[in-house]
Amino acid sequence: MINRVVLVGRLTKDIELRKTASNLSVAQFTLACDKRIKPKTAGAPTADFIPCVAWRQSAEFLAQYAKKGQIVGVEGSISTRNYQDNTGATRYVTEVTCDNVRLIGSAPRSESPAVAQDYNRTYTPAAESHFGNADDDFANTPSYDVSSDDLPFY
Questions:
Q1: What's the pTM value of the predicted model, to 2 decimals?
Q2: Do 13 and 68 touch, CB atoms closer than 8 A?
Q3: Is residue 26 packed enough to be buried (19+ CB in 10 Å), middle (13-18) or exposed (0-12)?
Q4: How large is the C-alpha radius of gyration of the chain?
């Protein structure tokens, strides 16, 4: 069974970093992802608004570098949960729990060049903790010469 999600969309607002009672960082945000097929009805939404949540260093990374309107790529899984609201009604939530986040594109024009370099960054906690530097993952792997005739989908 597979539960993987990959999304690219624009942030609908700036990230607000919060802390849990056990001092874990969490960021809840919404990505506006353009629909592939534009609706025929005038005034119909042209994007899906997907709720996402990032934890720990990923949340801190987003809070520090991501701004409203910036294109963000996320990889994660669909999570569902429920809770009781103040009136006692049960509320159900479906969201993407992010494993990896990436800021895509350039910094807003008001940012300095030094800050702009930080915008094309990825935060992947799993890659850092298990494999070291993600840039060196393929440095020592053999290369293979593959022709297009070898590929079944070419």
A1: 0.66
A2: yes
A3: middle
A4: 19
